[in-house]
């Protein structure tokens, strides 16, 4: 039973993409975050239009600033 569960779990973990985020600046009410995701994909097919490397990466920046006590600005 454990072998069956493990044999299904390992490929699922390998297929799942990795997503990460990091706060790179936080001072005086200003905050800047960097985030990203990488999915490594390779398809094997007889159809040449979908065969091959389909890996992609997504990177972004989020910002936040405290304008006054009651107002906060956000950007992405």
UniProtKB/TrEMBL annotation:
A single BP term in Gene Ontology: monoatomic ion transmembrane transport
Keyword Membrane: yes
Location within or outside the cell: Cell outer membrane
Keyword Transport: yes
InterPro entries assigned to the protein according to its UniProt record, in alphabetical order: Gram-neg_bact_OMP, Porin_dom_sf, Porin_gammaproteobac, Porin_Gram-ve
Membrane topology, from the record: Multi-pass membrane protein
Main location: membrane
Key words, A-Z: Cell outer membrane, Ion transport, Membrane, Porin, Signal, Transmembrane, Transmembrane beta strand, Transport
A GO MF term: porin activity
Gene3D superfamilies: Porin
Range of residues in the leader sequence: 1-21
GO cellular component: cell outer membrane; pore complex
Organism domain of life: Bacteria
SUPFAM superfamilies: Porins
Similarity-based family: Belongs to the Gram-negative porin family.
PANTHER family per UniProt: OUTER MEMBRANE PORIN C, PROTEIN YDDL-RELATED
Protein name: Outer membrane protein C
Name of the gene: ompC_1
